[in-house]
Specification:
- With 274 residues, this protein is an alpha+beta fold.
- The protein folds into 2 domains: 63-161, 2-Layer Sandwich (Copper Amine Oxidase, Chain A, domain 1), CATH 3.30.457; 179-273, Beta Barrel (Barwin-like endoglucanases), CATH 2.40.40.10.
- It contains 4 helices and 20 strands.
- The protein has helices at residues 2-26, 66-71, 128-132, 251-256, and strands at residues 27-29, 33-36, 39-43, 63-65, 76-82, 85-92, 95-102, 107-109, 114-120, 123-127, 135-136, 138-142, 148-152, 160-161, 179-187, 208-210, 219-224, 230-237, 245-250, 265-273.
- The protein starts with a helix and ends with a strand.
């Protein structure tokens, strides 16, 4: 009896040792793949975030408010009443550019082309393309906060407005159609003998004037709306650049309409020839 018991226990121990040893030598597992006897049998998907993935970026608006975007980079924006509607005059770095407004078609036209616009609660808004068309030697981008950034492409050269040589400040077709109203100023002895923007020598006793956009040589009638007095002048200089000011008269022209002592006058400007 004892002999049979000893044989049974020995046999059970051999089976137990074999069954325990085999599984631990049969397979191993790494982080992605299961192996059996050194051979891969299951590939585990990698669910980690790919190294090249980027978070979604917020979209920069391409439609921007015209006045505040340009004011933000130092461009003066002036609305002017002309025969048949309005126009915008942009002044930057001593140069000026006229933007014609087609209110019926919702279009802005510059020397570079035409661009759609919308009127949102009294704020004129247009695409980034419009702003990019205004400057030379400039990279113009939206700054993400409702404005634009203007950076010189060639740092050794200035950024300037693109102005067509035949920019006529929005005159309508035909003669004698340009009409503008605003403040007139005058200049005299302080500029006597200096070069004007046209290259002429300024003479305070000539009947000349400075205007932001009318072509040099344009002949205008300037009328003081308070007194009814008028004078005819020729444009040979650029200015004035103060808000609301539309023409800067020579001393002689200003004297003829009696505005020397008051310095400024409410006037209308009418083109007679160019």
């Amino acid at each position: 009896m004892n002999q049979y018991i000893r044989k049974f226990v020995a046999a059970t121990a051999i089976v137990a040792v074999g069954s325990v040893a085999a599984p631990f030598s049969a397979f191993a597992v790494d982080s992605n793949t299961a192996y059996v006897d050194g051979a891969p049998v299951v590939t585990v998907p990698d669910v980690s975030t790919p190294e090249n993935s980027q978070p979604a970026q917020p979209q920069t608006p391409s439609v921007l408010p015209l006045r505040s975007a340009l004011n933000g980079v130092g461009v003066d924006v002036e609305w002017q009443q002309i025969t048949g509607g309005q126009q915008i005059v942009l002044v930057y770095g001593g140069a000026s550019l006229t933007v014609k407004i087609d209110a019926a078609g919702g279009v802005l036209t510059t020397a570079a082309g035409s661009y759609a616009y919308s009127n949102v609660n009294g704020s004129l808004q247009t695409d980034l393309d419009f702003f990019q068309s205004l400057f030379t030697n400039a990279s113009v981008t939206a700054n993400g906060v409702g404005g634009i950034s203007v950076t010189a492409i060639d740092a050794s050269q200035p950024v300037s407005l693109i102005v067509a040589e035949n920019d006529t400040t929005g005159e309508s077709e035909g003669n004698y159609t340009y009409y503008e109203s605003g403040l007139a100023t005058w200049y005299g002895s302080g500029a006597q003998g200096n070069y004007t923007a046209s290259g002429e020598i300024f003479n305070m006793y000539d009947y000349t004037a400075a205007h932001k956009t009318l072509p040099f040589g344009t002949v205008c009638r300037v009328t003081d709306t308070d007194t009814g007095k008028s004078v005819v002048v020729r444009i040979n200089d650029r200015g004035p650049f103060g808000a609301g000011r539309v023409i800067d008269l020579s001393y002689q022209a200003a004297s003829d309409i009696g505005m020397i002592s008051k310095g400024v006058a409410n006037v209308t400007v009418e083109v007679l020839s160019k």
